[in-house]
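Lecture notes, unit on protein representations.

Consider one protein chain, 60 amino acids long.
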Amino acid sequence: MSRKRDHKSGETVEQHAARLKDAVSALEEIAQAGGIASIPDPAAWQREIRDERTLPGRED
């Protein structure tokens, strides 16, 4: 019996689920620790790094 594979990564559904679970755990640890200390204001940081681009049809 063959296992289903993701069409992009080639990993099995189980491998994908395990990787996502690990990612969620890592993010939960960061959140429990109070976030990333080097980013005192996450909203300001996001505004600074966001790549603004002109939307198609709105070159004005």
